[in-house]
Automatic annotation (TrEMBL):
Keyword list, A-Z: Cytoplasm, Nucleus, tRNA processing
Entry keyword Transmembrane: no
Subcellular location: Cytoplasm; Nucleus
Protein name: Elongator complex protein 1
Segments forming domain ELP1 TPR: 925-1087
InterPro entries: A-sol_ELP1 (IPR056167), Beta-prop_ELP1_1st (IPR056164), Beta-prop_ELP1_2nd (IPR056165), Elp1 (IPR006849), HB_ELP1 (IPR056169), TPR_ELP1 (IPR056166), WD40/YVTN_repeat-like_dom_sf (IPR015943)
Residue ranges annotated for the ELP1 first N-terminal beta-propeller domain, each copy included: 1-339
Matches recorded under Pfam families: A-sol_ELP1, Beta-prop_ELP1_1st, Beta-prop_ELP1_2nd, HB_ELP1, TPR_ELP1
Family: Belongs to the ELP1/IKA1 family.
Domain ELP1 alpha-solenoid: 716-918
Length: 1324
């Protein structure tokens, strides 16, 4: 689908009769040779840089004639071969010449290998001399070497050649001598031709032997490999494809003139026919460009003596003529540039030097959508392909036809060089073709005219018998370019832009100057004249153009100059201004960008424009910003910019942004991508695939592979963009068909715009008008929002919305199903299956309701039997057959269940006996049996409770399924069943050790005797006494019960309740005071003593208990204080050793290392790696509880252990926590010691407590190191672990749960409660 377009043509005058040409790309110079002299020029300004006259530089007594010229790369020398046999090296800087070798015969030509390591000289004795780079002889080869070569074919016994099928040769009788077409020696120059393969491993030599031309292939070691087969009419043009696959030559046959191709083994492999008569043109030269993509042919017309230069390309094994140039003067030399693949050098006999720069392009009518989005897509999808005198056209919006085929083709009587489509914002239904002769043929797609004229031929359907579904172009008018102007050369017209129906803008080379001009042609209908309206000269060469628009939506021309400047040409005012980017900076391109598109970008209601440009170096620019450095092609869609990369990716990014945002997104200097919401959607493509076109307003992307075959893909971004348009315009049927075709999730209907779709559900159902479509939609629903999950790239605006901390559960499916059911309530019966689907697809399936609907329809005969059958069959698709059978049973309709299960293909032995057994049961018991089968025990309990004859089954169900609560509600409070269930419930609670609840259940059923036992065990003494009173217990049993309850309460350390029972129920005051003293309830004990007014109880019970408790507390405080001091001294010592070790490591340059293990090695042995692994293997088998316990225990207090410091911290923390918990008890003890004048004991206890408290308070900040005040512990990157680790200073951030517990310092009240002022002064 690619064509060749001319970027620019440079022309300069050289001396006449140039015979050789060579180029130096390193220094941008070229050299031409005449018969005796060599001249060098600078390629930029064409100034002379070298002039050498060989007759003066080297004295010869023989006439000098140059037969070969080659620039030696990296040596700044020219290698010159002279006819008399000398080889001369000429320095291109100094001009000095030196003869470096000579042969004893005349030289006819010279050929260097691609890497210039071997040179071949052809002599007049019929031999070739092969030398090294330093001109050391390798060998001399005879052109008429005998034998086929080392690659001679092997005969495996399949018969002789005469017995094999040979195509048209098979028409001759076997054994009869065949007549070969005689070679016309007039058309052969009888020269020896040499061709090298691109890698330099092989070379071929073609010559004439016995009136026939053939060639031989030699390897780099000069061993003959192959000899070509005899072919009549083979001519002298000879070239080897650089990629190494084919050797090209020409063959003149009786009825056509072909370019033929040969494989390495000399056998023919394809051909194509030149567009001339057999005797019309003599082919002088064939040459491939450096990347083997274009084949150049040079020929001379026998009659007119004009020279033709043709450029051919191949796609899908079809050769197409892309460019045809005609020269009135003879071509002296042509050559492709060795580095730039599409740069061509042409020198004519009169001395004109042409430098053509070509580029590949695709003539696409849809390019107008880059600036105007309202063009009809059916009129903007044509691709034009030039093929000699034909233009092949295919509307890819309608059909995809692989090349070389097409939908229809336009036949002209001249060779076509360029094609342009009308690029108007209103229409694109016209095309024009510029021919070699300067004629412009215009074609239009006329809706009223359905038949084609004689210039248009429909190809896609194979001709007759098919009705065309497209409106092909028809010939409209023919215009002739005004060739009388001397301001520019009409032959160099290129960059054709059809801006309006009566105006064409093109570029051309100014005559006699290395500058170009912009020419505006006026198309005058009726006169068929293409008159020149305006000519605007620019400073330099124009290498690219495209159509743009100004603020008034008037077409303008964007012009790219070879110096990188980009100008905007106002056609009406005939003036140029620099094209600016979004920052009002002139756009400057640092390379030749062969494809440019002026593209619009829409953000809200504002529209901005930007220039997209692609260079041959695969750099894609948007204004001055690099979009990609590996772009191979790009195309414009209504909503996306699409491009392919050399890494085989297809990337789309949206046009629904302003240009400034996209530029900032791709700004490599600042790389501010994080601040923009530009989403790039990427998918993989086949290797080497490039874009041909994108159908505007649609979702079809056409790719072409390197061989030429086409592939149609539907990128998800484009498909969803079209779906969005359909959904926004409520075209639900179009959206559904597209989504079903491309497997788009149906949830997008709702998630795209939930409010709009929910309100449009009636219209949605009416638009689909199909139960199958509606069922497919309902079956695909789920509660996730696909615009934030699978299609989040296509909804970037939702990324900006804040994510709620707590989001309510979405019931989207239920909401849609309820709306569908509400609409279909009175709808046609054709949506009956949709109603079933809506019930079944809810979050909580309503399968039973669906079955009930089927049953109702069956009973009232509103549907046919086959429809009922189809409905049940459909339900089997939505719901598993076993589940559906169970739901049918849940309706208690055995006939329905039987009908459902018969369609599930289950074995009748599995369900028939069971259903028959159910039919013979009483109704309630049958329902109970069904519920038990379905494991619906609550419903089974309700049904069985209605059958008084089966209470034993009911009680069994209650016990097995623990349905006591529901059962108690079903049976009356004073019934025997209620009492029996209550007793069973109590036994169940007692088994679970829930004695208090069991006692309540027993008390409710008036079983107080057992209730008392339960209340006694649960220590609920109030309810126990209530049940005892209800049973009217005798006084003796009542007191025994009271003492039992008191003992149980004492065991649970509920001393106050036990004392109250003894005081109030048993009337044992002394026992009550004893219990209160045991529980340190001093105030309550004092109250009872005061009530009794007994000094004896005070001295015998309370005071001794106070003194004993004071002594115990003092001992405890003293012991904990001593232990605390020991641990403090040890932890300070451990930290001191660690600091010394750290300082030594830092001084030694070893880093801090593992200080814990160093401390362990200083104090004792540590756990080895093997033992640690064995410990880990054992601990991995422990339970979670035991692992936590083991984790707490691993902080050993053993001196020298690895975690000694953590163990000390844990022990110190536990001491302080225990001390803090004693505050209330000590405070109460001191108060009552003081109350009974035991001041010395109270003072001693308070003093000891205060000293201990001060010690702990003073050392807490030294033990638990405070945070580093210079560190921001609450920064944005802080975590809970990092804050705690910063506060404790010496711990790593990755702390375990046990480490976190010991890392937090314990809390200690700054002012303890036990500080009576009475003893405070004496304490100080």
């Amino acid at each position: 689908m690619k064509n060749l377009k001319l970027l620019f043509c440079e022309e300069t005058e050289l001396p006449t009769d140039v015979i050789w040409f060579t180029i130096d790309n390193e220094t941008s110079k070229f050299f031409v040779a005449y018969s005796k002299q060599i001249i060098g020029y600078n390629s930029k300004d064409y100034k002379k840089c070298l002039h050498v006259n060989l007759s003066e530089a080297i004295s010869y007594d023989k006439p000098i004639e140059i037969v070969g010229l080659q620039y030696m790369y990296g040596e700044e020398q020219l290698c010159i071969a002279l006819r008399h046999g000398d080889v001369v090296l000429c320095n291109v800087v100094s001009g000095e010449c030196e003869c470096v070798g000579s042969v004893d015969c005349e030289l006819l030509s010279m050929s260097w290998s691609p890497f210039q390591d071997i040179v071949i000289f052809v002599t007049n004795r019929g031999s070739v001399v092969v030398m090294t780079h330093d001109f050391d002889p390798i060998t001399e080869l005879e052109l008429s070497a005998e034998g086929f070569g080392e690659g001679k074919f092997v005969n495996v016994g399949w018969g002789s050649k005469e017995t094999q099928f040979q195509g048209s040769a098979g028409k001759y009788v076997s054994g009869k001598e065949r007549k070969h077409e005689a070679t016309d020696a007039i058309h052969d120059d009888n020269q020896v031709k040499i061709a090298w393969r691109g890698d330099g491993q092989y070379f071929a030599i073609g010559n004439v032997e016995q009136g026939k031309r053939r060639f031989r292939v030699w390897n780099q070691e000069c061993d003959l490999q192959y000899t070509s087969e005899d072919m009549a009419g083979l001519e002298s043009p000879f070239t080897w494809k650089p990629s190494g696959s084919l050797i090209a030559s020409t063959q003149r046959k009786a009825h056509r003139h072909d370019v033929v191709f040969f494989e390495l083994n000399g056998l023919q492999h394809g051909e194509f026919t030149l567009p001339f008569d057999t005797q019309q043109v003599n082919v002088k030269k064939l040459e491939w460009n450096s990347d083997s993509s274009v084949l150049m042919m040079i020929g001379t017309d026998v009659k007119s003596k004009q020279d033709y230069l043709q450029l051919w390309t191949v796609s899908n094994y079809h050769w197409a003529l892309k460019q045809n140039l005609i020269y009135d003067e003879k071509i002296a030399y042509t050559s492709w540039d060795p580095e730039e693949t599409l740069l061509l050098h042409v020198i004519t006999k009169p001395g004109k030097y042409y430098r053509y720069k070509w580029a590949t392009c695709i003539y696409d009518s849809s390019i107008s959508h880059s600036i105007a989005d309202d063009v009809k897509s059916t009129e903007s999808s044509y691709i034009g392909v030039i093929d000699g005198t034909k233009v092949k056209l295919t509307p890819f919006y309608v059909m995809v036809v692989p090349p070389p085929m097409c939908a229809f083709q336009v036949h002209l009587n001249e060779f076509v060089n360029e094609v342009s489509f009308l690029q108007s914002p209103t229409t694109t239904n016209e095309m024009c073709a510029l021919t070699t002769g300067g004629n412009l043929f215009c074609f239009s797609s006329i809706p009223e005219k359905s038949d084609c004229d004689d210039k248009v031929q429909v190809m896609a359907a194979g001709g007759n018998g098919f009705s065309s579904q497209i409106k092909p172009y028809n010939f409209s008018l023919q215009y002739t370019i005004d060739k009388t102007s001397d301001r520019f050369d009409w032959r160099t017209i290129h960059n054709l832009l059809w801006t309006s129906t009566d105006q064409i803008v093109a570029t051309a080379a100014i005559t006699g100057s290395n500058r170009d001009c912009i020419v505006t042609f006026l198309l005058k209908k009726g006169t068929e004249e293409m008159s020149i309206e305006k000519v605007f000269e620019v400073d330099g060469h124009i290498v690219g153009t495209c159509v743009g628009v100004n603020s008034g939506n008037t077409p303008e021309v964007i012009v790219q100059l070879n110096n990188g400047n980009v100008l905007k040409y106002n056609i009406s005012q005939c003036e140029t201004t620099p094209l600016l980017d979004s920052n009002d900076t002139p756009i400057l391109l640092n390379d030749i960008y062969h494809k440019m598109v002026y593209c619009s970008f829409t953000c809200g209601s504002s529209t901005t424009f930007g220039l997209l440009a692609l260079s041959t170096q695969r750099r894609l620019l948007l204004n001055n910003k690099i979009i990609s450095n590996e772009c191979t092609s790009f195309a414009i869609h209504d909503e996306y910019i699409i491009f392919t990369t050399s890494t085989h990716k297809l990337i789309c990014f949206s046009r629904n942004q302003d240009v400034a945002s996209i530029e900032n997104h791709f700004d490599r200097s600042s790389y501010t991508q994080s601040g923009c919401h530009i989403t790039e959607i990427v998918r993989s493509v086949d290797r080497g695939a490039s874009l041909v076109t994108v159908t505007p307003s649609e979702h079809k992307v056409i790719l072409q592979h390197p061989r030429g075959n086409l592939e149609v893909i539907y990128p998800r971004a484009l498909v969803i963009s079209v779906v969005k348009k359909y959904l926004n315009s409520a075209k639900y049927l179009c959206a559904f068909q597209l989504m079903r075709k491309h497997r788009i999730n149906m949830n997008l209907f709702y998630d795209h715009n939930p409010e709009k779709f929910y309100s449009d559900i009636p219209h949605f159902i009416e638009d689909l008008n199909s139960a199958d479509y509606l069922n497919l939609f309902l079956s695909d629903l789920h509660n996730d929002d696909v615009t934030v999950t699978m299609y989040n790239q296509h909804y970037p605006a939702k990324h900006k919305l804040p994510t709620p901390l707590f989001s309510a559960k979405v019931h989207k499916v239920d909401k849609i199903c309820d709306a569908v059911l509400a609409y279909l309530k009175n709808a046609d019966k054709k949506f009956f299956l949709s109603v079933l689907t809506a019930h079944v697809r809810k979050d909580k399936r309503e399968t039973q309701k669906a079955l009930e609907l089927v049953k109702v329809a069956q009973d009232d005969h509103s549907m046919e039997d086959n429809q009922i059958h189809d409905a049940l069959k459909y339900l089997h698709v939505l719901v598993d057959g076993r589940v559906l059978y169970q739901e049918a049973l849940a309706t208690y309709d055995l006939d329905l269940a039987l009908t459902v299960v018969q369609m599930s293909h289950n074995d009748p032995k599995e369900y028939v006996p069971f259903l028959n057994k159910l039919k013979g049961m009483e109704e309630d018991f049958r329902k109970y049996t069904i519920d038990m089968y379905l494991k619906k025990y609550h419903r089974a309990l309700i049904n069985i409770s209605k059958s008084s004859d089966h209470f034993s089954d009911c009680l069994g169900l209650i016990k097995t399924q623990n349905l006591y609560g529901e059962a108690l509600k079903l049976f009356g409070q004073h019934t025997s069943q209620h009492r029996e269930i209550s007793l069973s419930y109590a036994e169940y609670l007692i088994a679970k050790h829930l004695y208090e609840e069991a006692g309540i259940i027993l008390a409710r059923s008036e079983n107080h005797k057992k209730a008392i036992k339960c209340f006694t065990v649960s220590c609920n003494w109030q309810l126990a006494f209530a049940s005892a009173i209800a049973l009217q217990y005798p006084e003796k049993e009542y007191k025994e019960l009271a003492r039992t309850l008191a003992n149980n309460l004492i065991d649970k350390r509920r001393f106050f309740d036990a004392a109250m029972i003894l005081e109030q129920e048993v009337k044992d005051i002394e026992a009550a005071i004893t219990i209160l003293c045991k529980g340190h309830l001093w105030s309550s004990a004092c109250r009872l003593i005061q009530i009794q007014k007994s000094e004896l109880l005070l001295n015998s019970h309370l005071i001794p208990a106070l003194l004993e408790t004071a002594s115990e507390v003092s001992s405890t405080l003293t012991a904990s204080k001593e232990q605390f001091e020991r641990h403090c001294m040890r932890i300070f010592k451990v930290r001191e050793i660690k600091e010394e070790r750290r300082q030594r490591n830092l001084l030694a340059g070893e880093g801090e290392g593992d200080l814990d293990s160093d401390i362990a090695s200083d104090f004792g042995s540590t756990v080895t790696g093997s033992s640690l692994s064995s410990v880990n293997s054992r601990t991995s088998q422990r339970t979670a509880k035991s692992r936590r316990k083991q984790e707490r225990k691993r902080f050993s207090l053993r001196e020298g252990s690895r975690f000694e410091e953590q163990g000390l911290l844990q022990a110190l923390g536990e001491i302080i926590k225990a001390f803090a918990s004693m505050d209330d008890d000590v405070h109460s003890l001191i108060i009552h010691l003081s109350l009974f004048h035991m001041d010395q004991d109270a003072h001693s206890l308070q003093h000891l407590y205060k000293v201990t408290h001060d010690l702990y308070s003073q050392l807490i900040t030294k033990i638990w190191i405070p945070p580093n005040q210079d560190v921001n512990e609450h920064g944005p990157h802080s975590t809970v672990n990092s804050i705690i680790a910063n506060r404790i200073g010496n711990f790593n951030e990755n702390l375990t749960h046990a480490e976190l517990e010991i890392a937090i310092p314990p809390k200690l009240n700054s002012k303890p409660k036990c500080s009576m002022d009475l003893y405070f002064a004496s304490t100080n």
